[in-house]
Amino acid sequence: MYTLLVRCTFDAAHSIPGHAGPCAGLHGHSYRVVVEVTGSALDELGMVQDFMALRERIERALPDHRHLNEVMDTVPTAENIAAWIWRELAFEGLRASAVTVWETDEFGCRYEPPADPARQALPGG
User: Fold this and answer.
1) Active site residue 103
2) pTM score, two decimals?
3) Residue 23 annotated as catalytic
4) Of 36, 51, 105, 120, whose CA is between 20 and 30 Å from 96?
């Protein structure tokens, strides 16, 4: 089994209503996203997928320079953002095995969907 890792970035603003600290107010992050795509079959060139084509598909799904509270239908925490990006990629026909979102160098969240798609409960989905 092979796991491709594609790292992208996007800038966005959000607030966390009800948060006891400064995250309750409008603020922004330069998010880093790592999308994992697994596969066991290689094409005639010896690739699971072409990295450049994969990155283009991922970047189309990212909410760059957006206010996440207006884009997402749930509170835009790192956890919900990771699941939301996974779902957006699925809408685009890309089945990621995991999505990791980093808000800062120290804080991030990795979302991996349940193995049983019938039991999948995504925030805002």
Assistant:
1) yes
2) 0.89
3) yes
4) 105
